Structure formats: C-alpha cells, structure tokens
Amino acid sequence: MQQERIVTAGLVLRDTVTKESDKILTVLTADLGRISVIAKGARSRRSKYTAACQLLCYSDMTLSPKGDWYYLAEANTIELFDGIRRDIVKLALGAYFADLTEAVCTPVPEPELLRLLLNALYALSALDKPAALVKPAFTWRLMELGGFAPLIDGCAVCGKAPPERPVLDVVHGLVHCAACQTDGFNLPLTDGALRALRHILYGDAKKLYAFSLDDAGLRLLDQAAEAFSAAQLERSFRTLDYYKGIASYE
Ligand SMILES: [Zn+2]
User: Fold this and answer.
1) How far, in Å, is the centroid of ligand 1 from the Cα of 104?
2) Could you report the per-residue pLDDT of 151-189, keeping only the tens digit for each?
3) Largest CA distance in the chain
4) Ligand 1: distance of its center to the CA of 192 in Å?
5) Do the Cβ atoms of 23 and 51 come closer than 8 Å?
6) Domain residue limits, the chain
7) Would you state the pLDDT for residue 249?
8) How far is the CA of 171 from the centre of ligand 1 (A)?
9) What is the CA(166)–ligand 1 centre distance, in A?
10) Rg, Å, the chain Cα set
11) d(CA 1, CA 233)
12) Which parts of the chain have pLDDT scores under 50?
C-alpha cells in the first residue's frame, strides 16, 4: 500500500534539535493549521532540506502523516527571508513574531494568520519597514485574528465616541475616557494612536502598514500591544525580552 503523502506550504515557527541529527519543527500551514513535523537528518550535512528546516523558512513541504505527527519527506524553499537572516535584531524580532503566533494559533487552519506573519516578515526583510511600525501593527492584528480584539469603538463607561483623552484598559480589553475610571491596568493612548489602532484592527489586511502616526504615538501603541498580549495570553515571552535587549544596543 502506498503511504499517504500531503503537500502543503508551511512556515517554521520553531525548530527543536533532538537526538542525533534530527529536528522537530512547529510549522504553520495554510491547509493543516499548526502541526508538528519530524525532520529526520535535518542537521546532517548531506540533508537535502537543511535550509527549509530553519526558523522562519517558508517552504513547500511533502509530509507523511503518522498519528499526531508528520514526517518530512521533501521540502522546496519558497522564501528564506534573507534580509532578516542577515540582521540579528530583525531575526530576534522575527523569532518573537513566530513565538507570539504560535501562542495565538490553533491546530485549525487559519490562512489569514499565516498571511499576516508572512507579510510582517516580508515587510522587515525585503521592504525594510521600521520595526517601530511593523511590531505594533503586527501584534495588534494578530491579537484580533486570534479572537482577542479590544473594544475600541467608544468609551466603555460613558459611551462617548471617540473617548475623551483615550485610555486602554489592557486587562478588560476596552477603551475609556481618562476621566471615566475602570479597575483594570490602564495605558494612555493619543487620539492619533486610537485612530491608527482602528485602522490596524479593522482595515484592509493588504494596507496594514499604510497609516501615519508620529513616533510618540507608535511607541504608545507598541507598549499597549505588549501589555495587552501579555495580559490576554497570561504569559511573557523570552524572545521579546531578548529582542528588546539587543535592539537597545542599536
Ligand atoms: Zn467616558
């Protein structure tokens, strides 16, 4: 009987080294969602798919399913994101994006999520868009796709839209006026940052990075994105700490 084979495109979110020369990969695919792939001999110099088994490599993969696992039979690289691989700070940010995506995604196929991550990596790698823009936009949109979108249409306390001197409550996932208090963990936004957040959460995915916001507003959105994802996912990310550590030396 011929063994079943599946061909799908997948992005490596995590690569774990195992015994001898094998790797276990966490792969985000369009067709199968998030899967675990065993790549036999991936670290061997003779391996024909070493490149495809690296973190953040996007490839066409031929897989043999076995229980909950998939064995990698063949891989053809589609995109290596060289611009990220050449730059240690971008690579660290890409690793955080992959980590965050893994925390948000499920084993159910989520092609939009894969597209979002591929576009973010492309924006950093080929378009050389600044991390100060890509990081908050990617994080907020990812949280929205993962079902964690905050309610930002108006003040959650008095209903005023837009809220007056807006504040984001990252615990309850809502905005309110500075004068309307809630008992959550509150971070201030500017009017411009709130408008940008609306564009990021509800706008056309293809125009995710097409908004203008001053540096101070971007920083507020970024801090809010970090605090919001940590509160909603109830965890911190070592890859984020690492990225911030090396980015501060730039
Ligand atoms: Zn209010």
Assistant:
1) 31
2) 999 999 999 999 999 999 999 999 999 999 888 889 999
3) 70
4) 17
5) no
6) 6-80, 83-247
7) 79
8) 17
9) 9
10) 20
11) 45
12) none
Distance 177 CA to ligand 1 centre (A): 4
Ligand 1 centre distance from Cα of residue 161 (Å): 8
What is the C-alpha separation between 56 and 117, in angstroms, rounded?
Answer: 10
Centre of ligand 1 to C-alpha 78, Å, is 49
CA–centroid distance, 184 to ligand 1, in Å, is 15
Ligand 1 ion: Cβ-proximal residues, 5 Å cutoff: 155, 157-158, 160, 177, 180
Which helix (H) or strand (E) segment holds residue 189: the answer is none
Report how far ligand 1's centroid is from the alpha carbon of 179 (Å): 7
- Specify the long-range contacts of residues 123-129, CB closer than 8 Å, at least 24 apart: 123/209, 124/81, 124/83, 124/84, 124/90, 124/93, 124/94, 125/81, 125/82, 125/83, 125/84, 125/90, 126/81, 126/83, 128/83, 129/209
Topology, domain 6-80? OB fold (Dihydrolipoamide Acetyltransferase, E2P) (2.40.50)
Question: What spacing in Å lies between the alpha carbon of 217 and ligand 1's midpoint?
Answer: 21
Question: Are 196 and 133 a contacting pair, CB within 8 Å?
Answer: no
Q: How far is it, in rounded angstroms, from Cα 20 to Cα 74?
A: 19
CB 46, CB 39: distance < 8 Å: no
User: Quick one: 83-247 is in which CATH superfamily?
Assistant: Recombination protein O, C-terminal domain (1.20.1440.120)
